[in-house]
Amino acid sequence: MIWSIVMEPGGKWSGRISRGKLLRFTAIDAGANVSLLLYHAHDLTERYNMPDTLKAQYTSHLSTGNTLMSDNGRVMASIVSDDLGWHDTISSYTSRAMTNAKYGSTNYQELRNDWHRSGQENFAVELIRNGLGVRDLMPNVNLFSKVICDENGSMHHVAEHCYAGASVTLRTEMDVLLVLSNTPNPLDARSAYPSVPVKMEVLQAEPVDDQDVCVNHRSENRRAFENTWSFYGLI
Questions:
Q1: For every residue of the chain, which 3-state class applies, written as one string?
Q2: Where is the DUF1989 domain (predicted)?
Q3: Which domain holds residue 7?
């Protein structure tokens, strides 16, 4: 293991991570949700593209074998192992108004680090720290959450999806800026602000070979990997 951190409830984190690393996320307790954004570390205009990721892989959620593709048709990260089989891509992140309405109004001046943070605010702070801003917010991935649609098109959060100790591991295929927010899924029906720490560990990955499960998940995946390999082969 190269590095690790435990993100407390409401916590946020951002950092640049080079390609060829494993990012292992583990829910310390049941009911976790970690919202995630990805940007190319050396060209912040390139970032995770939710529509291309989903349509290229014929899915609305992510699990082992799936990749997170950029808006340049390259693979930013791949999911190489997953205990849960479903990670949400469609329900977005919480706002201040949403957080106040669901959990009650709080502020830092009164409660210090126990105040109820929102995903939007956490993302905004970390983006500004990295030379970006609120205009660079985009659709995110919610690790550990399962959101389904019923026959009428309404979305529902599955409360019992994430159990204590569940983990998911991503492999970086590019040098990335990773931005995280340990805040509730917007569709989580719990009336109390969820309090679930999540551990993130960074490890060295094995080289990707031609038999890799993510490369071969779909033909579109292979093309995106080839675009990524060509990019790094020419720099």
A1: CCEEEEECCCCEEEEEECCCEEEEEEECCCCCCEEEEEEECCEEEEEECHHHHHHHHCCCEECCCCEEEECCCCEEEEEEEECCCCEECCCCCCCHHHHHHHHCCCCHHHHHHHCCCCHHHHHHHHHHHCCCCHHHCCCCEEECCCEEECCCCCEEECCCCCCCCCEEEEEECCCEEEEEECCCCCCCCCCCCCCCCEEEEEEECCCCCCCCCCCCCCHHHHHHHHHHHHHHHCC
A2: 7-177
A3: 3-233
